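Severity: low
Component: inverse-folding endpoint
Summary: output formatting inconsistent between runs
Steps to reproduce: submit the following structure tokens with default settings.
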């Protein structure tokens, strides 16, 4: 047999094993129809506007680029409280910390220890939107799932509250 034929045969075997492995994992996950953990949190964000430094939980650290009629290029950092109810004065059970940025030229845009890592586009003009839970630490070690976001209330650009319905499908306790 020629070396090129053997190389192609090995490559084919590798891909067959890879596909079989993917199907085995897929069928295992599809059997688990219900989440292993669910909870609802409310994120409260108060954007800094020069007069509210004591209460602000987020601020723009870059200005919009001006190449569109939206906030394209703006980078915002936040340290927002998460509560179990809709009241901003309720005791926080956790904090959402990180950043978000406007990367589109259009308008589209508790009792646990550890972190949840969420990734995805928050298309705020949609009534509900899903973003991925891609991992975590502590009680949420390597968890996977989905977070359904819904804008609960807004007060112009000064304040908004998001309702997060979180469903975890891979839990390692």
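Observed output (run 2 of 3):
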């Amino acid at each position: 047999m020629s070396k090129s034929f053997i190389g192609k045969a090995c490559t084919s075997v590798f891909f067959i094993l890879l596909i079989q492995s993917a199907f085995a994992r897929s069928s295992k996950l599809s059997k688990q129809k219900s989440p292993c953990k669910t909870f609802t949190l409310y994120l409260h964000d108060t954007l800094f506007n020069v007069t509210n430094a004591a209460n602000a939980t987020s601020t723009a650290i870059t200005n919009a680029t001006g190449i569109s009629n939206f906030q394209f290029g703006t980078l915002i950092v936040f340290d927002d409280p998460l509560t179990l109810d809709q009241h901003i004065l309720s005791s926080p059970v956790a904090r959402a910390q990180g950043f978000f940025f406007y990367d589109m030229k259009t308008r589209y845009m508790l009792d646990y220890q550890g972190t949840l890592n969420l990734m995805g586009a928050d298309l705020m003009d949609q009534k509900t939107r899903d973003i991925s839970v891609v991992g975590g630490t502590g009680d949420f070690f390597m968890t996977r799932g989905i977070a359904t976001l819904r804008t609960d209330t807004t007060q112009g650009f000064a304040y908004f509250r998001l309702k997060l319905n979180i469903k975890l499908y891979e839990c390692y306790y």
